[in-house]
């Protein structure tokens, strides 16, 4: 009986894919879990493994065809052939070294360390940096490698103690959940001499980005836009250019300019060559690529507008000064400004629900809860952990949650669930000295509040000029859903709550 090969689930928002290439032809022998076909979506390329061993009986869809999740791709006929395994390494060079240890007696005890699942919406990761090399002896929970997804970095620990005998992915490679990363021999056997080769071999292809031709849909879109392959940076496997890469390049302003691109090469002289020698080219992390793409998408999609106001921080500072010691002693966390701002924002969101809503096609989704994202800067980039149901929390509970999330963010320990589902975001540029800025929306949210530096300024109070600690506030909002009156009213309500903190206590 033939075994069917079908399109796997590709993620919550992905319903179809394009057949990029088949690795096998009808009549060829296949082994279970051997890659048969590569599917390409707007976000990622996915290899579909063989569900069983046998012979590829038929291919139902051709390269370049578009298929939906669950669609039939082909069939595998059961075969009694003895050893089709020998054909598998010939297809993928990196599999060849694995064949020898597999047949050897010590390999029976090898422990495979694979790419862990990082959440429903995360289908791939980049290999950031290895902490071990072939031949190293590791202990349980020693960090082996750091993986970079489009949302956070994730460290992979050693599940057992032993000797690293194989590294199956090089720094910069793109890997998927379940893919082999490294093999550990718990018996402590020495590593095969040929084992380091697979890790080093893919590096040149990753650097050049030319190991793979553009995906079919990407090639078509590049032809329509008049773009050359060297104008688009590929994010797919082995540097393959995907449709999403072309769209990102177009959004970034890349355009066809053959004459202009030739000119710089002609005028390059000794000075340009000397400058290039002093430059440093560093590959963007997955997190940084995603930050760049999402911020640009927000600008391209939303009708973004910013309104400003200023708040006298004196009352909050006086309250904080009077009770900070007692607060810290009772709750075990310092009393900062974020607790007050988060509560003030929640009060304002209840009054102006449009700022807490989002657009989905032709519908507006109003959120009857406040999940407040708090932007945190890390050495790897900006992340936005979410304080869930902040409207139901006290200032002390909010401060504790923000402190815990901030530590996780700086340590690279944030989970996917802790960065999803936010309905509104607060960004505090004041900690870096920013006096005023216009924050960019965190799509699909419709509002983001920018906090800034507290600075003493002369203010007119009751007819007298006095020095007050003032802060500029900025609310960026999506004008498609939030009217100017609503935006201004929201910011005024935040200002009123902060200038009279008693309103927060009395829920006014």
UniProtKB/TrEMBL annotation:
Q: Which GO terms describe its biological process?
A: L-lysine catabolic process to acetyl-CoA via saccharopine; tricarboxylic acid cycle
Question: What is this protein's function?
Answer: E2 component of the 2-oxoglutarate dehydrogenase (OGDH) complex which catalyzes the second step in the conversion of 2-oxoglutarate to succinyl-CoA and CO(2).
Cell division in keyword set: no
What family is it from? Belongs to the 2-oxoacid dehydrogenase family.
The cofactor named in the record is: (R)-lipoate
What is catalysed by this protein? Answer: N(6)-[(R)-dihydrolipoyl]-L-lysyl-[protein] + succinyl-CoA = N(6)-[(R)-S(8)-succinyldihydrolipoyl]-L-lysyl-[protein] + CoA
Q: Which UniProt keywords apply?
A: Acyltransferase, Lipoyl, Transferase, Tricarboxylic acid cycle
Q: What molecular function terms (GO) are annotated for this protein?
A: dihydrolipoyllysine-residue succinyltransferase activity
Part of which pathway?
Amino-acid degradation; L-lysine degradation via saccharopine pathway; glutaryl-CoA from L-lysine: step 6/6
Q: Which gene encodes it?
A: sucB
| Span list, region Disordered | 191-218
Example GO CC term: the record gives: cytosol
Composition bias, kind Low complexity: at what positions?
191-205
Write down the species: Polymorphum gilvum (strain LMG 25793 / CGMCC 1.9160 / SL003B-26A1)
Q: How does it assemble?
A: Forms a 24-polypeptide structural core with octahedral symmetry. Part of the 2-oxoglutarate dehydrogenase (OGDH) complex composed of E1 (2-oxoglutarate dehydrogenase), E2 (dihydrolipoamide succinyltransferase) and E3 (dihydrolipoamide dehydrogenase); the complex contains multiple copies of the three enzymatic components (E1, E2 and E3).
* Annotated ranges, domain Peripheral subunit-binding (PSBD): 213-250
**Any idea what this protein is called?**
Dihydrolipoyllysine-residue succinyltransferase component of 2-oxoglutarate dehydrogenase complex
Q: What is its EC number?
A: 2.3.1.61
| Span of domain Lipoyl-binding | 2-77, 110-185
């Amino acid at each position: 009986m033939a075994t069917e090969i079908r399109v796997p689930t590709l993620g919550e928002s992905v319903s179809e894919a394009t057949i990029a290439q088949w690795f096998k032809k009808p009549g060829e022998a296949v082994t279970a879990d051997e890659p048969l076909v590569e599917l390409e979506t707007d976000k990622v390329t996915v290899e579909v493994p063989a569900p069983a061993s046998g012979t590829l009986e038929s291919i139902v869809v051709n390269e370049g065809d578009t298929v939906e999740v669950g669609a039939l791709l082909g069939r595998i006929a059961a075969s009694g052939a003895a050893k089709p395994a020998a054909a598998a390494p010939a297809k993928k060079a990196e599999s060849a070294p694995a064949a020898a240890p597999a047949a050897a007696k010590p390999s029976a005890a090898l422990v495979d360390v694979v790419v862990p699942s990082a959440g429903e919406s995360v289908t791939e990761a980049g290999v950031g940096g290895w902490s071990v090399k072939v031949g190293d002896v590791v202990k349980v929970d020693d960090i082996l490698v750091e993986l970079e997804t489009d949302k956070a970095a994730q460290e992979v620990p050693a599940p057992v103690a032993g000797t690293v005998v194989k590294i199956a992915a090089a720094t910069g490679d793109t890997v998927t959940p379940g893919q082999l990363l490294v093999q550990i021999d718990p018996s402590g056997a020495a590593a095969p001499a040929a084992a380091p080769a697979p890790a080093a071999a893919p590096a040149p292809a990753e650097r050049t980005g030319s190991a793979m031709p553009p995906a079919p849909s990407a090639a078509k879109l590049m032809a329509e836009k008049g773009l050359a392959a060297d104008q688009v940076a590929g994010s797919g496997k082995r540097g393959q250019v995907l449709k999403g890469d072309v769209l990102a390049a177009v959004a970034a302003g890349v355009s066809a300019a053959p004459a202009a691109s030739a000119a710089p090469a002609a005028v390059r002289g000794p000075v340009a060559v000397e400058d290039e020698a002093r430059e440093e080219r560093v590959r963007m992390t997955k997190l940084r690529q995603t930050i760049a793409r999402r911020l640009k998408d927000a600008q391209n999609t939303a009708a973004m507008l910013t309104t400003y106001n200023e708040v006298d921080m004196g009352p909050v500072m006086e309250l904080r000064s009077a009770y900070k010691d007692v607060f810290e002693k009772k709750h075990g966390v310092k009393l900062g400004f974020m607790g007050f701002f988060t509560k003030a924002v929640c009060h304002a969101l209840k009054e102006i629900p449009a700022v807490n809503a989002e657009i989905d096609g032709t519908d507006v989704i109003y959120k009857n809860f406040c999940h407040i994202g708090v932007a945190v800067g890390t050495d790897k980039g900006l992340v936005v952990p979410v304080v869930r149901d902040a409207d139901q929390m006290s200032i002390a509970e909010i401060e504790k949650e923000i402190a815990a999330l901030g530590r996780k963010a700086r340590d690279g320990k944030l989970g996917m669930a802790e960065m999803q589902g936010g309905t509104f975001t607060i960004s505090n540029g004041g900690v870096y000295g920013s006096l005023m800025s216009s924050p960019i929306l965190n799509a699909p949210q419709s509002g983001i509040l920018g906090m800034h530096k507290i600075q003493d300024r002369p203010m007119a109070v009751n007819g007298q000029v006095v020095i007050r600690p003032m802060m500029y506030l900025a609310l960026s909002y999506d004008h498609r859903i939030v009217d100017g009156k609503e935006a201004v009213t929201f910011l005024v309500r935040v200002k009123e709550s902060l200038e009279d903190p008693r309103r927060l206590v009395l829920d006014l």
